[in-house]
Every structure is written in C-alpha cells, then in structure tokens.
Amino acid sequence: MTQHEKGGSDGNAVVPQQYLAPFILVTTLFALWGFANDITNPMVAAFKNVLLISNFESSLVQAAFYGGYCFMAIPAALFIRKAGYKRGILLGLALYAGGCLLFVPAGNMMEFWPFLMAYFIMTCGLAFLETTANPYILAMGPEHNAARRLNFAQAFNPIGSLMGMFVARDFILKKLDPTDEEARRALIDTDPVALAKIQESDLAVIVGPYVTLGVVVFAVLIMFTLFKLPDGKTDDPRDQSLLACLGRLFRTPRYLGGVVAQAFYVGAQITCWTFVVQYGVNELGMTAADAQGYNIYAMVIFVTSRFICTYLLKFVNPALLLGFLAVVGGALVVSAMTLTGMAGLYSLLAVSACMSLMFPTIYGIALQGLGDDAKIASAGLICAIGGGFIMPPLQAAIMDGPERVIGGMTLSATRASFILPVICFAAVAIYGFMNSKQRKTA
C-alpha cells in the first residue's frame, strides 16, 4: 500500500475505492474500543460503592485500563512491524476478548485486584488495536487528506462509546442495589452476611455485560481471520532499521510535541467524562444512573461535533482548529468549576464538542510525512494514552480532599479537581497553534 494514490479518479478521494472494504472492516475496531472505554468510565463510581473504597482507590480502574496502553504500545508496534497489520489486529482482539472473560473469575473472587488485572489485559489488546488501526487508516490513501480519513474513521469511535454508556447506565448502574454507601458501611458491623450478598449480586451485574462483550469481540476475531486485508506496506526507501527509525523520530519536533499533546488530551478527555458522574452526584444531588445519563448527552454532542469537524477540515487548517477548540474547551471547564447549578454541568457537557476533533487530528499532524516510520511512531502516540493513567487518580485525590481556593474563589473539592483538564487543554492549544503555520493536510 502506498502512502500516495497514483493517478486515477480516486486521487483526491478520502477513501480510494480499492481500500473501501478493508477501511470499513478496520473502522469497526474504532467502535469496539470506544465501547470498552465508555462502559468502563462509570465503573469508577460503581466499584466505589460496591466494594466500599475511596475515590482514589476506585480511580485505579482507569489506571489499570490506561496502564495497558502504556505497557503494550511499544511491543505492539514492534510486533506489527515484523508481522504486519492483520496479525496485530488478531492478537489485539484475542487479548481484548480474554480480558473481558476474566471478569468471571474476578466476580467469583469478590476482590478488587482481579478486576484491575482483567482491565489491564483487556487494554493490552486495545493497545494492539489502536497501534495498528490508526496508522493503517492513514495509509489507506493519499497523505494530503490522511487527517480527514482518520477523523472519519474515528467518528465511529463515539458511536461505540454511546453504546457503552447506554449499557453502563441501563444494564449496570440501574440494576445495582440502591443501598447507599453509608448504609452499606453500617452493615459491616451489623449484618456482614447481608452486605456480602449485596456485593455478590452487584458484582454479577457488572460482570454480565463484559462477558457478552468478550463473546462479541471473539466473533469479530473470527471475521477478521477469514477476511483478506492488504499488507499495508509502504514505498519508503529509507533505512528501516529500528535505530534509524527512532533517530528520525527523535529529530522530528512535530512528532515529539504530538506525543506530549496527546497525553494531555487523553488526560482531559478521561477526567471530563469519568467525573461527570461525581460532579452530578456531589454537586447536584443526582443518582449515579441519572448523572450517567448526562454523560450520554455529552457523547451525542461529541459524535455530532466529530462529523461537523471532519467536514470543516476540508477548509480549515487542522492545527489551527485544534488550537482554537482547545482554548474554548479550557474556558468551558473553567465555567463548570465556577458556575453553580445546572449551568456548570451544561458547561462540562459542552466540552465534548471541543474534544471531538482532538485525538485523530493530533495523531494525523504528528504522523504526517513519516512514511513507514509511522508504525513505530504510532506506539508513542498510543503510549500517550497513559495520560488517562495519570490524571484520574490525581483528580480523585483532589476530590477526596478539602475545599480549595483557586483564583480567589473557594471551590468544593469536586469543582477544584477540574483544574487538571484546564491545564491539559492549555498544552493542546500550544501544540495546535505551534503547528498551524504548516501546510493544511486535509
């Protein structure tokens, strides 16, 4: 597969005809990992109440989930470099399905750490899928519109996310025992057997959807096994040794900056979405299920904005639009911190409109012109998803603390914790504006 389409009427097509079928199949993966991300975000609040742990401890769900990306991204890139895109996808799907099925023994053990291990293995699989699918999509046609192609494929990621949110709300959160944390803690001394039964029932509710997901992913694995995919080779004449590739990457500021920007973006995304539930519960007195319903509205905004932004990239420099939306996103988070009542929550939901463009656009800018080096470069950008490993525990630690004074205002611990995504958006804005003078790539 060449990086540039040579001649023919498809020369300016976002997806040239000969790549249409593999493009559609690979794009299904974007929805699959979107589902995993957003069925998992509300589990931070769920495990806190079910297992009676702190905000910090429950946030380790996200640490384990995103830690898998950090751990496996580089091995995945090295594997794909030798074995090709298809084998990388197959191994990723196998790990994904296996991690989901490990929820069965985890539920039987009724302890937190086996769930963390299951999340970690599951996301080792997702690291393979993302390390493979993103550069593969970029390579399915001309380089000059690669950012649009990846944005289009990534538009199906939030569709999977929406499905994950619905499942989390309607098949997990709404089916959990309504006994609140205070009443459960009272049962520790008064009726531990009753508490154990409640916990056993709740964990069974959590396990069920993940097992179903594992079966679906295994079915997709079979489908990919039977389908013939292009090998994804590029016509890159440069020295393809690992050391030569790394040397070129470390001499490319646009790529290195992209890794940093991606880490901050993912940190902003995960904190804004994960802690919508805590914002609704702690600041507005909602139930966890009702607060998760607003997270679904945020994802609808995200999906809609993704398609709009993909269209705008026909006319607007991607990096300039990235910087502008990062500034607006940071301003909206500040509004969520300072405005009371539903206005603050609506501001937090509106951030999703700004985030929709960011991940694939940073990815496209960072990998532009890298040729076959994109296979290794992709690993750095997937490792950057580790921003989701670091930020949620930091935010949860702030949330577990007292009120804070920021900018002369006294804010609750929940509101004050959102200073972290403000910092993250500032970093993304800097990257966008620094690269906005380059040739428009869409």
Q: Could you please describe the fold and organization of this structure?
A:
- By secondary structure, the chain is an all-alpha fold.
- The protein has one domain (16-434): Up-down Bundle (Growth Hormone, Chain: A).
- The chain has 22 helices and 2 strands.
- Strands 1-2 form a two-stranded antiparallel sheet.
- The protein is globular.
- The two termini are 20 Å apart.
- Residues 1-9 have low confidence and may be disordered.
Summarize the topology.
Elements: H1 20-40, H2 43-51, H3 55-58, H4 60-83, H5 85-101, H6 103-109, H7 112-138, H8 146-154, H9 157-172, H10 181-190, H11 192-226, H12 242-250, H13 253-274, H14 276-284, H15 288-312, H16 318-338, H17 342-355, H18 358-367, H19 374-383, H20 387-399, E1 404-406, E2 409-411, H21 413-416, H22 419-434
Antiparallel strand pairs: 1-2
The share of residues in helices is over 70%
First-to-last CA distance: 20 Å
Number of strands: 2
Broad shape: globular
Would you summarize the structure shown here?
Helices cover 75% and strands 1% of the residues.
Features:
globular; 442 residues; Growth Hormone, Chain: A; 22 helices; mainly alpha; disordered N terminus; two-stranded antiparallel ribbon; single chain
